[in-house]
Amino acid sequence: MPPDARSTIAALATARGTAALAVVRVSGPEAVPVVASRFSNEGLAEAEGRTVWVGWLRDGDGRRIDQVVSVVWRGPHSSTGEDVVEVTCHGGDTVAQAVLRALYDAGARPAAPGEFTQRAFLHGKLDLAQAEAVADLIHAESRLGHRTAVAALRGRVSDAVGAVRQSLVQTAALVELELDFGEEDVEFADRDDLRDLLTGADRLLEELVGSARLGALARDGVRVVLGGRPNAGKSTLLNALVGEDRAIVSPTPGTTRDAVEAEAEIGGLRFRFVDTAGLRETADAIEAEGTRRARAAIDTSDVLVYVVDAAVGLDGEERSFLDDLAVRRPDLPVICIQNKADLVTDPARLDAEAEGGTTALVVSAQDAMTNPAALDGLRRSLLHAVRAEGLDAAEGGLVAVNERHRAHLEAAREAVGRARRTLAAGSGGDTLALDLRAALHELGLVTGAVTTEHVLDAVFSQFCIGK
Ligand SMILES: Nc1nc2c(ncn2[C@@H]2O[C@H](COP(=O)(O)OP(=O)(O)OP(=O)(O)O)[C@@H](O)[C@H]2O)c(=O)[nH]1
Ligand SMILES: [Mg+2]
């Protein structure tokens, strides 16, 4: 992290490339004079906060770069808490880079990744969980990712952590008061009250830790591998699921070799589908490599959609493959698909297969190419497999912590667990106080009430420059 938090920083806030407009952001004590020194409208130097100025921006030699709009905010009433000027110029790399160069010449320095947000954090504009939400919002790739980021930006994660904190502070206060009077061997705090407070804190922590699963789904999406025998219709199914002709389909078994990935949003979640080579023993070295990759993909997938040609059925080898998989990855949800239902004239056959418990969904991937609704059952099964049904329709803010939060919340929960055991054993208040302090410390690391350079580095280095 840049040590000179008092310098004035500048960066392009918008994406590079051709666009109607670009925004260059400047923050720091010299933000206004830096821009004013290159700006045609002299009033800017004395500008009040929340004012807008139109004028020409010039380079160090006085040459006009562009006619721009400068918006001035005076700290602490700004996004970073410092003086901020946002210069909106015409888009395109040439103009924006020339504006930036002019401002660097005038005394600003290039901002490090996430430095604007870091300054907002340091000036108390956002806590750490909210700052992280800014990055999540920018990188959100699904409706769910967007909603959880907005909830966190609004302080939902921080509020939830605050609620735990409150009950722990209350407990700690009672315990430490008792310690102050330790010599007199009095118990101010009703043991039942302490136990209830800790039980409540533990329950809230459990819920928060559990929300990391939703956080991971919202941020990373779900990786679904389409596996099965050659020619079962995996590639056709992939194309139908994403509504695009992504993978090569042919009647020749062994068509797909490399894994083909494509995405689709289902129920607000991002699903990444991976079409793989058909699983079979083969003398063809290239196909064998494809099969090896298919197995590797299955081993790292979140969900396996196993496609069977309904006209052929599931053979013994496939059954044992699936049985082995169930042992190797007992938590992997497997959705079996009987494909090519259009070819099966005897419906009793499909029912019989379904009764066997091996095959749950009957579809025709080919028909689904022109009728996407034909895969709604599969879409529901996918959401069910990752326990994400109804999330899209859920009202209110979706609280979901990230991996960093989860680790600290787990540690807090362990400390609370120790405190509960100490209490149950009727042992000393000093051990209790220590555990409570440890738990509070971990909570502080989530919101940034407690920080270390290491934590700040880890958080802000994930940002892009200009944010
Ligand atoms: N009638 C019918 N044909 C289908 C259906 N789905 C796929 N097919 C046909 O089955 C053949 C194989 O389809 P693919 O999607 O290439 O099968 P695959 O599982 O990807 O095969 P490999 O890549 O060789 O492993 C093609 O001729 C498809 O048109 C279906 O639902 N009904
Ligand atoms: Mg294929």
Topology (SSEs and partners):
Elements lengths: L8 E4 L8 E7 L3 H6 L14 E8 L5 E10 L10 E7 L2 H13 L3 E2 L4 H8 L5 H12 L3 H11 L2 H25 L10 H30 L1 E7 L5 H9 L17 E7 L2 E7 L9 H15 L3 E7 L6 H13 L5 E6 L7 H9 L5 E2 L2 H4 L7 H10 L17 H23 L3 H19 L5 H8 L7
Parallel strand pairs: 1-6, 7-9, 7-10, 10-11, 11-12
Antiparallel strand pairs: 1-2, 2-5, 3-4, 4-5, 8-9
Helix pairs in contact: 4-5, 5-7, 6-7, 6-15, 7-14, 14-15
Bound molecules: guanosine-5'-triphosphate and magnesium ion.
The site of magnesium ion has 6 residues, from α8.
Provide a short characterization of the protein structure.
With 467 residues, the chain is of the alpha/beta class. Among the domains are: 9-125, Probable tRNA modification gtpase trme, domain 1 (Gyrase A, domain 2), CATH 3.30.1360; 230-266 and 274-294 and 308-330 and 338-385, Rossmann fold. It contains 16 helices and twelve strands.
Structural overview:
The model has no long low-confidence stretch (mean pLDDT 91). By secondary structure, the protein is α/β, with parallel strands linked by helices. Helix 4 packs antiparallel against helix 5 (143-153). The chain starts with 8 loop residues before the first strand and ends in a 7-residue tail after the last helix. The strands form 2 sheets. A 6-stranded mixed beta sheet has the order 3-4-5-2-1-6. It has a 6-stranded mixed beta sheet with strand order 8-9-7-10-11-12, with helices on both faces. The protein has helices at 31-36, 93-105, 115-122, 128-139, 143-153, 156-180, 191-220, 234-242, 285-299, 316-328, 347-355, 365-368, 376-385, 403-425, 429-447, 453-460; strands spanning 9-12, 21-27, 51-58, 64-73, 84-90, 109-110, 222-228, 260-266, 269-275, 303-309, 334-339, 361-362. Among the domains are: 9-125, Probable tRNA modification gtpase trme, domain 1 (Gyrase A, domain 2, 2-Layer Sandwich), CATH 3.30.1360.120; 230-266 and 274-294 and 308-330 and 338-385, Rossmann fold.
